[in-house]
Amino acid sequence: MNQSFIVKISADWYNITESRHMKLFLIPTVLLTSVTLLVNPILSLCILCFPSLRQENRYLLLANMLFADMLFLAINLAMVSCNSMGLHMPHWLCEFMMVSMVMTYSTSVLTITLMVVDTYVAVRWPLRYKEILPPSRARKIIMSLWVMATVCPVSLLVMFEVLMGQNKQSRPVCLVLIALHSLEQKKVGVHSYFIIAISLCTVLTVYCYIHLYIITKTSGIWRSRYSRARMTLLAHVLLLMMYFVPTLVFAVELALLKQESLEDVGVWINLVNMCVLMLLPRCCTPYLYILRYREIYKTIQHVLWKKRHQSQRSAA
């Protein structure tokens, strides 16, 4: 595997997207990103500016996930736009964007997993919850999540730099998939990271949800088919699946790219994953939590009502 081979794959990738009119995937990318970035900043500011919300761990974790999602969406939009136009990015800019994408995506998955753990601890030890997970400790854990999410992409970048050497050529397509494919000599380590990370998050999430059901089944909150607890659990499980599925699809993409000839189906799957599947959970997350958390809904309603009232007074 050498640099010229990576340039060839990138050129073939761009030619396929050009000949099949795949630039149209930019439309759902822009729409989903815009809809999400319209709400995420407002929701994040409401959590960080109101002490009543900022002192609760679940809202701190939600704000962290929203922040990671906003960074991911901005970087993903820039990458998809540049790839659709065939812009030859400098290698350092491409590497920075790839590392940032993996880091922000990993942070979102780790944060949503920790949110499940936080709920489990709050229900399992309600009297000791503030002692076990005070807000100060939650902030340190959030910082640790970012460090953990940074270690893997940076280590992969170091391997990529060592493998490619100093002869780096610009290429029309900047993709994490192609960069990881270039680490064919290290593919066991790359696959192991994704398999271990997703397996740990899945096992931890399933364990917490099963024990939450065992702990709360005698309280009567599950008796009604449309109870709040049942609908909240269903929404969270659906959201978790939407966050995890793109990673599984990415593993399929790596398997398809092992072949010497680049197939159209691999490009289609990659674009659907980058432009739709990875964006859908991030688009649904802010609206879901606004509807499910009464405190957030009331806070946003209060802020919007206050701004509207002030604008009416100024107009009068």
Automatic annotation (TrEMBL):
The lineage of its organism: Eukaryota, Metazoa, Chordata, Craniata, Vertebrata. It comes from the Eukaryota. PROSITE patterns: G_PROTEIN_RECEP_F1_2. It is found in: Membrane. This is Probable G-protein coupled receptor 148 isoform X3. It comes from Cyprinus carpio. Keywords: Membrane, Receptor, Transmembrane, Transmembrane helix. Pfam families: 7tm_1. The keyword Membrane applies.
